[in-house]
TrEMBL record:
This is Protein SlyX homolog. Residues 7-55 form a coiled coil. It comes from Alteromonas australica. The lineage of its organism: Bacteria, Pseudomonadati, Pseudomonadota, Gammaproteobacteria, Alteromonadales. Gene3D superfamilies: 1.20.5.300. HAMAP family: SlyX. Keywords: Coiled coil. Belongs to the SlyX family. InterPro entries: SlyX (IPR007236). It holds the Pfam family SlyX.
Length: 83
């Protein structure tokens, strides 16, 4: 193989390698962006979950603190004497 063809082959191999590197860098940048977006979504959902947990705990505490009523339910009431 002549020196000129060897240089052309090396130049072509270098160009291919550079293209592959650029493609990989683009993919990594896209993946980093996607990971960051997923991380933000996860953090937001975690905050919502914590807020819901707090609200449910508050509702449970309120329900537990409700005193039973001394008033009979409608189904337990005796009909008035004139019936």
């Amino acid at each position: 193989m002549s020196e000129n063809k060897r240089e052309e082959a090396l130049s072509e191999a270098l160009a291919i390698a550079n293209n592959n590197i650029e493609e990989l860098q683009t993919k990594v940048a896209f993946q980093e962006h996607t990971i960051e977006a997923l991380n933000e979504a996860l953090a937001s959902q975690q905050k919502q979950l914590e807020d819901l947990h707090y609200k449910v705990r508050h509702v449970i505490d309120r329900v537990k603190s409700i005193q039973p009523s001394n008033i009979a339910k409608q189904s337990e009431e005796m009909p008035p004497p004139h019936y």
